[in-house]
Amino acid sequence: xxxxxxxxxxTQSIAQEIYEYAADLMFVQGRSAKRTKELLVENGVSAxxxxxxxxxxxxxxxxxxxxxxxxxxxxxxxxxxxxxxxTITTYMTASxxxxxxLVTWGAIVFGAVxxxxxxxxxxx
Length: 124
Fold this sequence. Notes:
The protein is mainly α. It contains 4 helices and no strands.
């Protein structure tokens, strides 16, 4: 029983090292999926296993990109609508009571850019 656990742990450790190597090739070194597969195969990983690793890494990349896009959408909307609400509120107050109002164009533009960037990244 203990030998089986040691073998499982060793297998998991080797698999983790292979995934880390592939992730380093793709993310840190900027290698293409094709070149990463070639290097994995050169280092003794079967072509089938290399394909599975590459597909898994691509899926992880997509999930990470989607999280970043959603964060851009959220913060962009907060900046945009926050700036817009401050502008509208101060304008309404100034128009009723007289005085000046604040146009928070920086927050509105920044929020709009970030919001649309997030939307475009989410779509693609």
